[in-house]
Amino acid sequence: MNSILFLILRRLRRPLILIIVCFSIAILGLSLMPGVDDNGQPWRLSIFEAFYLISYTATTIGFGEIPYAYSQAQRLWLTFSIYLTVIPWFYAIGKIITLLQDNALRQAITTERFARSVQNLKEPFYILCSYGESASVLAKTLDEKGMRVVVIESQQERLNELDLAETRSVIPHLCADAKLPENLIRAGVHHPFCSGVVTLTDNDEVNLAVAVAVKLMNPELPVLARAERDDIAANMASFGTDHIINPYTLFGEQLAMRVHAIGTYILHEWLTDVPGDTLPPPENPPRGRWVVCGYGRFGKSVVENLERENITTTIVEATPELTGCDHCIVGSGTEAHTLLEADITNAVGIVAGTDNDINNLSIVMTAYELNPKLFVVIRKNRRHNDTLFKQFNADITMQPTEIIAHECLAHMIAPLLAQFLTMVRTQSNSWANHLISELVAVVGETVPERWAISINESTTPAIVELLKNGISVSLHNLTQDPADRSKALNLVPLLLLRDNVPMLVPPIATGLRVGDQILFCGTADARSGLNISVNNSKALTYIVDGIEVPDSLVWRWVKGFLARK
Fold first, then answer.
1. What confidence score (pLDDT) does residue 555 get?
2. Does residue 261 sit in the same domain as residue 387?
3. What percent of the chain has pLDDT over 70?
4. Is 298 contained in some domain?
5. Same domain for 351 and 258?
């Protein structure tokens, strides 16, 4: 507010000074002009009367000669005052209209309104330091789950898309540079309900600047940042960035996972996708020799992970001197002779991994003509090209937007989910297949909800109350329906964290302790049922002992009376 007031006063300084000077001259002169009353006696207007008269004269309202008819001197001075005051008054009005159109003032007002709306938030929220493709998917998913977000974006056209988006709640947003600490403060870095900061721009330097600034201003605040360069990622890690996301590394790991552990891959995708969606059955990449077109960050990650699975690769690169490719075929891969030189006819798969969507489509179309049996992996860089890629229908379409969004959701929606997925990668493929079959039997084939609970007085008062009374509560009790304990809720406990020691898919008979953290997956109805159990001691007592505790005043008195008898 101080900056807005300062800006207004600075812009209106000249017209205000001019009005004050002109009014002062007119008022002083009018008070000195001699007049005559009804009795012919001389009289003069007081300063207040002169001010009153000049005020409605200068605003062109008009006036009457009261209380007495004016003398010629007074009329002459009023005529002079009209031109003296009306002209600067209109000048000031013009300046005010110009000020209302001033971009600096409008930005200051918008910034102040944004800061006030963030300060008024009374529920947990995340700060998104961009509204690009990944962040927009993330904002939409979080909004659908009832989680609040705040957006800082430097490009106004992206925020225009946010204004047109259909959201459940109003998303505060500001067109500003997220690297500036004052903008992060306005966005709520010090707000008590801020749950974390997410920076997913396509500029690693910007992401680094945001991550460093947040960790210096609020070291305890979780930060999720995108980093494609190893040196930037190392710099982020040195400042304590909690989660560093490289989409190309993640995709390379997922591709390798498809090769040697398809069940683990399905479990990973199933638990990180948007709840309610149905995943198509994934294709199993074949073993043999692959042709990789493009040896940038994406291509290097793919080659590294394929070779780790003992799959040989032939690299096609247009600028090997820039990418450091020592043994590759020079070319873009869009030409048939380049692919023939790479022996595409005897390859089992091709990866079109350049940073140009049209080139990637051209590569796979040319490759298909030479070898229709190829397993095709294609990289999609821009979300607005969805229609083109759907028409082609490749075996695997890699889009950094979706990979980044899914990885962020794994950390934001249920923090224990990321730890669970890390442990899953160390398990066998048969173990993953067995868990998938159990989950499908309980929650169905659609992507389930994921959530975590902590056993403490604030979030699970019913459990804590029973434990204090010496009544044991097990994981099995949390899977029972509070309306009918003979029925089971459609949920499965995936991870139990006790004393920072994780237990993967804990036995259902495991007893609970205060301080435990549990990761669940299940349906939305099951989540609501569990919420009743952990917050209502009557419902939980019924689940554990089968006893329906009277909750009305009369029934509690009757029960106490019978107990005394």
1. 47
2. yes
3. 94
4. yes
5. yes
**3-state SS assignment for residue 98:** helix
Q: Is residue 171 in some structural domain? A: yes
In three-state secondary structure terms, 88 is helix
pTM: 0.72
3-state SS assignment for residue 205: helix
Residue 562 has pLDDT above 70, yes or no: no
Q: Give 246-266 pLDDT, tens digit per residue.
A: 888 888 888 888 877 788 888
Q: 371 and 406: one domain?
A: yes
Q: How many Å apart are CA 498 and CA 329, to the nearest integer?
A: 53
Q: What is the 3-state secondary structure (H, E, C) of 242-257?
A: CEEECHHHHHHHHHHH
CATH number assigned to the domain comprising residue 253: 3.40.50.720
Amino acid (1-letter code) at residue 166 = E
Q: How far apart are CA 157 and CA 95, in angstroms?
A: 29
Other residues' Cβ atoms within 10 Å of the Cβ of residue 476: 16
Q: Which amino acid, residue 61?
A: I
Write the CATH number for 498.
3.30.70.1450
Number of domains in the chain: 4
Q: Is residue 554 part of a domain?
A: no
DSSP 163-177: HHS--SS---EEES-
- Helix-strand-coil percent breakdown of the chain, rounded to 5? 50, 15, 35
Q: Within a 10 A sphere around the Cβ of 542, how many other Cβ atoms?
A: 19
Q: Does residue 564 have a pLDDT over 60?
A: no
Q: Where are the beta strands (DSSP E) in 318-404?
A: 329-330, 349-352, 375-379, 396-398
What number of other Cβ atoms are within 10 A of residue 62's Cβ? 7
| Element at 123 (helix H, strand E) | none
Query: What is the spatial distance between Cα 537 and Cα 74, in angstroms, rounded to a whole number?
Result: 87
Please give the biggest Cα pair distance in the chain: 121
Give φ, ψ of 495 to 5 degrees.
-150, 135
Give the residue among 462, 468, 493 at the shortest CA–CA distance from 479: 493
Q: Are strands 449-454 and 349-352 parallel, antiparallel or unpaired?
A: unpaired
Count of CB atoms within 10 A of residue 275's CB? 17
Distance CA(152)–CA(32), nearest Å, equals: 60
pLDDT band at 563 (very low <50, low <70, confident <90, very high): low
pLDDT tens by residue, 344-401: 999 999 999 888 888 989 999 999 899 999 999 888 887 677 777 777 778 888 877 8
Instruction: Tokens 């997956």: give the residue.
Output: 521
Is the predicted pLDDT of residue 125 greater than 90, yes or no? yes
CB 388 within 8 A of CB 365: no
Both 180 and 306 in one domain: the answer is: no
**Domain membership flag for residue 431:** no
In the block, tokens 């007081």 appear at 46
Range of the domain at 500: 448-545
Q: Are residues 224 and 253 in the same domain?
A: no
Element (H, E) at 536: none
